[in-house]
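Good morning,

Attaching, inline, the backbone tokens for the sequence recovery test we're adding to the shared suite. The designed sequence is right after.
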């Protein structure tokens, strides 16, 4: 879910810096939504890495969607890497604050479904999202 929401964030910002900044914010928001965690850490890692690889292959390693996916998922690396835990607590704000990560709510199945649809949509979008420019004001343009 963090990979796919980060990818969508990257698509919407259309900027590498924007995607890198938005990713951790999306992570905090997603951690806050009550949700069941997937029981298999191995599956979580494999699906996350697979999602990022798919984005890197289809859209490019430096595409905002790939950067957004990495930026959004990266905070969870501290769950698997031996990073320092000052005061016995984890580093990322939504992991440090007791009670931020709430169990229950959205089932793992629904999350996987939504994540798959989001990631599939980003992968299927061939061009970066471009907000309408000042000059187009809703007028239909025909590309030649
Ligand atoms: Zn997290």
């Amino acid at each position: 879910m963090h990979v796919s929401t980060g990818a969508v964030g990257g698509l919407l910002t259309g900027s590498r810096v924007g995607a890198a900044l938005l990713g951790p914010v999306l992570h905090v928001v997603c951690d806050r939504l009550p949700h069941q965690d997937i029981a298999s850490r191995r599956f979580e890692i494999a699906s996350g890495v697979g999602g990022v690889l798919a984005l890197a292959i289809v859209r490019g390693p430096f595409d905002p969607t790939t950067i957004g996916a990495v930026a959004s998922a990266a905070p969870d690396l501290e769950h698997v890497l031996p990073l320092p835990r000052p005061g016995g607590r984890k580093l990322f704000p939504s992991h440090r604050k007791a009670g931020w990560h709430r169990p229950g709510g959205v089932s793992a199945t629904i999350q996987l479904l939504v994540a798959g649809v989001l990631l599939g949509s980003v992968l299927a979008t061939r061009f970066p999202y471009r907000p309408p420019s000042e000059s187009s004001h809703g007028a239909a343009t025909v590309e030649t």
